[in-house]
Amino acid sequence: MKESRQRIIVALDVDAHEAGQIIKEVGPYVGLIKVGKEMMTEGTANDVMFRAVQQGMGTFYDGKYFDIPETVYRASLKAARLVGVRMFNVHCLGGLEMMQAARRAVDEVASQAMTAAPRPLILGVTLLTSMDVATCVGTGLLPVWAETDDVEIKTKFMRDAVRKLALLAKKAGLDGVIASPLEIAEIRKACGPDFLIVTPGVRPAGTETNDQKRIMTPGEAIRAGADYLVIGRPITKPATGTRAEAAKRIHDEVAAALS
User: Fold this and answer.
1) Which residues are catalytic?
2) What pLDDT was estimated at residue 182?
3) Rounded mean pLDDT of 153-161?
């Protein structure tokens, strides 16, 4: 059960009070929480992270740092020292030097640590799962001829872009990347078996996709090679049943895929 539990990260895109309730309800089936911009902005992230520690859960600190290398270095120093942080992230689009700065910061904190606790993992955000070819063309990340009616060609453009960003993250010394389920195989082939892949855009069969565009079910993502799954509304706002029941269903699906 522990192995399956540690693969699941629940995205707490809610207020602090509701986050505390969710942590209590889903703790037996979920290994990590994800705190993001909302809690960081309102100043409640640390309190929620402490509650998670009390329930034996770690934190994915979803700061998505994207700035000049020195700023990211200093932010990463702070993130690596936060209680309960098992992983945090930076944008691959920030470039090699910026990602190396994050790694340098974490190594510095680890060298000064007074305990044997493992250093936080650093993940690179490739392309957000809300992004598709049209989005990337609109921002100039992909050429205009990537926008075509040919689904296979569009998929190839997206996978190539994500693969290049993942290789850059590996070169920078990051532990892994965050990418949609549809790019898992490409990343695994390019970056090897030990490079971590954290996968949002995971939706159990029969649930709404919301703003995600490149998705798989939990079992499909694990079988494809994902190391961690980030799941929000299917757990925090289930269409039927309780949050605990929703988390258990996903946990059991992950366990079955791992077996």
Assistant:
1) 64
2) 87
3) 91
Burial of 46 (0-12, 13-18, 19+ CB in 10 A): middle
What is the percent of the chain where pLDDT is above 90?
A: 80
Residue 106 has a pLDDT of 97
Tokens of 165: 């960003």
Report, as an integer, the average pLDDT of 145-166. 92
Residue 207: which pLDDT band, with cuts at 50, 70 and 90? low
Average pLDDT over residues 19-36: 96
Name residues whose C-beta falls within 8 Å of residue 104's C-beta, 6 or more positions apart in sequence: 73
